[in-house]
Specification:
This protein has about 300 residues and is an alpha/beta fold. It has a single domain (about 5-299), classed as Alpha/Beta hydrolase fold, catalytic domain (Rossmann fold). The chain is built from 9 helices and 9 strands. It has helices at about 15-20, 35-45, 100-110, 135-145, 145-160, 180-190, 215-220, 240-250, 280-299; strands spanning about 10-15, 60-70, 70-80, 90-95, 115-120, 170-175, 195-200, 230-235, 255-260. Strands 1-9-8-7-6-4-5-3-2 form a 9-stranded mixed β-sheet, with helices on both faces.
Length: about 300
């Protein structure tokens, strides 16, 4: 049986993918769609190099706020300049470092691909991320923020997008990185109306739970009703491959999912502003992300 026909939840390494499918995107849970890889490659060619999308004159940036319960959440919104009618929405969930220009650049790349992308500042109530280089300080800061609050802010962001005339009734998806990838798991498991979720190295298992973070994402996966794609580095010292395998096994068998691992890629391999950046796996993961959104949000 070819790789294209294997079980939909199979964890596929980048090297195995290249051996079995060349430059094609793996379509797990469905037969391969002829021409999809070529179409996505053409789309990818129109996307600016990492770190440059923010200056694209064809992308419009708006700094917005939206309500979440009694509070307001600050966000950056990116949309295609010449958008005619409506487009699907995507919520971009930032890393533990907060809403940075790297995350805004990712949102701008999604706008280049034809989406209305919303990047919330999930630390809005705290005035943004702490100005600290000590990672233990940042971890302690995020430990004081309840998961339920963040998921609620993301759900409010989806409602905000759905209320915009340039999104309307179109599907809404989400993509997140590091801490943001973890919240893609929690958000998707608790929001069945989402069209798709894409995880970049989001931790599926809490080593310890607290009253503010009481439930590991893995625990919620059996209730997942949202198509899910995930990307993990095989050299990630913080997320063992056993956890990735556990995530694969926890996703319902009838739920469309794609889980990829990348040899020699560390944590944060997609972030082009950090030493961990690895250009080739980052590019491949982004191509797969665009193909997944094309299928589940635009299809």
């Amino acid at each position: 049986m070819s790789k294209d026909k294997q079980d939909k939840n199979e964890v596929v390494s980048w090297r195995a993918f290249l051996r079995s499918a060349g430059s094609r995107a793996l379509a797990t849970g469905a037969s391969f769609v002829p021409g999809l890889a070529a179409a996505n490659a053409a789309l990818q060619a129109k996307i600016s190099a990492p770190g440059t999308a923010l200056t694209d004159p064809n992308v419009v940036r708006e700094d917005v706020i939206y309500p979440s319960g009694p509070d307001w959440v600050k966000a950056t919104l990116m949309r295609p300049k010449n958008l005619s009618g409506t487009a699907p929405g995507v919520i971009v969930i930032h890393e533990i470092f907060g809403l940075t220009d790297h995350i805004r650049d990712v949102a701008a790349r999604l706008a280049q691909a034809g989406y209305v992308a919303l990047a919330p500042d999930l630390y809005s109530r705290e005035g943004g991320a702490p100005e600290a280089t000590d990672f233990s300080v940042i971890r302690a800061f995020t430990a004081r923020i309840a998961d339920d609050r963040i998921v609620g802010d993301l759900q409010a962001g989806a409602s905000y997008l759905a209320g915009r005339p340039d999104v309307g009734s179109r599907k809404i998806g989400t993509v997140g990185f590091c801490m943001g990838g973890l919240y893609v798991l929690l958000f998707s498991a608790q929001t069945p109306s989402l069209g798709a979720g894409v995880v970049f190295y989001g931790r599926p298992i809490y080593r310890e739970t607290t009253p503010l973070k009481p439930t590991s994402p893995l625990t919620l996966m059996p209730r997942l009703q949202v198509p899910l794609q995930a990307h993990y580095g095989e050299a990630d010292t913080g997320i063992p491959l056993a956890d990735v395998e556990a995530l694969k096994q926890a996703i319902p068998a009838n739920m469309a999912s794609e889980i990829y691992t990348y040899p020699d890629a560390p944590h944060a391999f997609h972030n082009d502003t950090r030493e961990a950046y690895r250009a080739e796996p980052a590019k491949l993961a982004w191509q797969r992300t665009l193909a997944f959104f094309e299928k589940h949000l635009k299809g």
